Amino acid sequence: MDKALELEIKKFTAAELAAGVSLSDIQNHINAEFKTSLTYMDVRILASTLDVDWQALDPNAKKAAEPAAEEPAAAPDTVEPETAAEPAADGEISDTVVEVSKLARPGMMLSGSVKFASGSSAEWYVDNMGRLGLENLVGEKPTPEDIEKFQIELDKAVRKVMGR
């Protein structure tokens, strides 16, 4: 596909996503209007490269963000396991939360996200060579204590995923 056509398809896809059109419908429109044959996965990968606020497009996220007008926001009865603070090995509560993605990113063995006790967050990965890395840091640079807690919580999360 030439660069001009690819750019037009990207612009079209971004506009359609902003309008709330599903990826499946976007695929059908692209194939009809641009006389090309992209698979659903092609469109999904193309959409993932766009600068799109996916949370703003998720109707479930909007409902969760807006509490019902008639009822005051009540405290939840249960805490979701991935957001709950886990007791550390020494009995202390850790404010560092590590999540393991169900699908690893391409070229990675594992990947996920971390919210540090200091309030910063980032994405983490373990590449196919076994190297651990952090990227897309939001907030202040993690302290050495944050990194230590992250490594402990990552170990726990990976063991849980592996069933150990």
Q: What does this molecule look like?
A:
It is built from six helices and four strands. The termini are far apart. A four-stranded antiparallel sheet has the order 1-2-3-4, covered by helices on one side. It has 164 residues and is α+β, with helices and mostly antiparallel strands. The radius of gyration is 20 Å and the shape is elongated.
Features:
alpha+beta; four-stranded antiparallel β-sheet; 4 strands; single chain; 164 residues
**Helical amount:** 40-55%
Q: How far is the N terminus from the C terminus? A: 47 Å
Total beta strands: 4
The largest sheet, given as strand count, sense and whether it forms a barrel, is:
4 strands, antiparallel
Q: Can you count the helices? A: 6
Oligomer: single chain
Chain-averaged pLDDT: 76
List strands and helices in order, with pairings.
Blueprint: H1 3-18, H2 23-33, H3 40-48, H4 54-57, H5 59-65, E1 97-100, E2 108-115, E3 121-127, E4 132-138, H6 144-162
Antiparallel strand pairs: 1-2, 2-3, 3-4
Helix pairs in contact: 2-3
